[in-house]
Design goal:
- The protein is an all-alpha fold and 204 residues long.
- It has one domain.
- It is 50% helix and 3% strand.
- It is built from six helices and two strands; from the N terminus they run βαααααβα.
- It has a two-stranded antiparallel ribbon with strand order 1-2.
- Helix 1 packs parallel to helix 4, helix 2 runs parallel beside helix 3 and helix 3 packs antiparallel against helix 4.
- It is globular.
- The two termini are 15 Å apart.
């Protein structure tokens, strides 16, 4: 696992609509993967916004929005659901509000990382569809709809997704906060390979 300081930095180029609320990461492993997931999510959103904004017409905009929701996000949501089912993770393995945490820190870290990824992917889905309501080819999904479609349960109550606070947006005139260029979707989301790498590190 890389050092936390060596992770690439990513900054929003468009004000986000939502953010994920989640328990504080208390171990280095959790901090590392939380930062990694956040960076990938930000870069993916920047990419989608850029693709849509640079589209030559309305049909092209609809195409990019549709592809973002039905290809990468759909695949990663299903991969995450499958991984969670295989590992049998649950919130009571990492969240102290459910009582005493398990003594197996690897299990607790694994559950924390996978559930954070789960909620971040749901947030990305909501972010993209709600940013471009006029470009949707199908009816938008509610938060409950997304959780039911991919994870067979309604959204947690209270929700882990809330309205985002106002932030400083990156601009080309400030090179210190300009994210690295993105060449393909392969670099945008937490990939299957990255998930496998995570599980190799967090599963004993």
């Amino acid at each position: 696992m890389q050092d936390l300081q060596d992770l690439k930095k990513a900054f929003y180029q468009v004000q986000p609509l939502y953010e994920v609320l989640f328990p504080k990461a208390l171990t280095n492993k959790r901090k590392y993967f939380l930062s990694l997931i956040d960076a990938e999510a930000i870069e993916y959103l920047n990419y989608v916004h850029r693709q849509v904004n640079e589209s030559i017409n309305a049909n092209a905009k609809k195409y990019h929005v549709h592809m973002a929701l039905t290809r990468p996000l759909n695949e990663k949501l299903r991969e995450t659901a499958q991984a969670n089912q295989e590992q049998e993770y649950s919130p009571d393995q990492y969240d102290p509000k459910f009582g005493v945490l398990p003594t197996n820190t690897s299990t607790a870290d694994g559950a924390y990382i996978l559930f954070y990824l789960k909620h971040q992917l749901v947030r990305l889905y909501l972010e993209i569809q709600d940013s471009y309501p006029e470009q949707l080819k199908e009816e938008p999904l509610t938060e409950d709809d997304i959780y039911l479609t991919y994870f067979n349960h309604i959204a947690p109550n209270p929700s882990h997704i809330s309205e985002a606070v106002q932030i400083k947006i990156a601009s080309p005139s400030n090179p210190r906060i300009t994210p690295q260029s993105i060449k393909s979707l392969k670099h945008l989301l937490v990939t299957t390979r990255m998930l496998q790498k995570a599980f190799l590190l967090i599963i004993p």
